[in-house]
């Protein structure tokens, strides 16, 4: 009795995770790609544009080669690739770009730390992929994802989180008195929600930076961070001290929330450290 030979399955395309009908929501993958691109060393003005493009394409190929099956595995993959590029940049600066001589040790140390982080991320991803996904039991099949209005989704979440918490007591049903009911959620348009969020963030930044001369403080980055210079100016010293104090207060509050009754550790600063 003859046995019919089964045809091997077609080869799996790793780049399917970037497709709009891929196994992972394209909204999430778009943000994952954006996050990955922001971690790459692309600010070297002496580098040809083609080199930067090649680095970005290679990074997406590396992410696809990790075969993430869901959003969590994609996040681990992004962190692993970011750690690789951080290590590569550290090796380059430590071995070839350290001036004056003798200052490259800290870059080599940072590169070694990033290399260990790369290995840790890969091991975490391998441990997760050694088990089947909870739902479904295998790689999710491609599906058609509906379009998502991100601004409307965030406006709805913001309105939900800003509720008074009295809805269960006041909104008892159709007999609720609208004049005495204070638990209604305020519906905001996406434009109103964005404007409100921007105003809150602006007020927080203004309060944190009160009394500082930001206009004459060199080296401030768009996200409010600053790279520790070798010889900071008085304005830079004041700004760095304020950021460190705010970070210290936040860590102290987080320790208290966790039941830890001790002051946070004071970490020494070195030239090149990013202070947020």
In short:
With 276 residues, the protein is mainly α.
Q: Give the radius of gyration.
A: 25 Å
Number of strands: 2
Characterize the largest beta sheet: strand count, sense, and whether it forms a barrel. 2 strands, antiparallel
- N-to-C span: 73 Å
The total count of helices amounts to 8
Summed over residues and divided by their number, the pLDDT gives a mean of 78
The strand order across the widest sheet is: 1-2
Order of helices and strands: HHHHHHHEHE
Assess the beta-strand content as a share of residues: under 5%
Low-confidence stretches: 167-176, 178-183
What does this protein look like?
There is one protein chain. This protein is mostly helical and 276 residues long. 51% of the residues lie in helices and 1% in strands. Strands 1-2 form a two-stranded antiparallel ribbon. It is globular.
Primary descriptors:
globular; 8 helices; 276 residues; 1% strand; 51% helix; mainly alpha
Show the helix and strand layout.
Elements: H1 26-39, H2 49-65, H3 71-97, H4 105-129, H5 150-161, H6 167-170, H7 190-208, E1 226-227, H8 234-257, E2 274-275
Antiparallel strand pairs: 1-2
Helix pairs in contact: 1-3, 3-4, 5-7
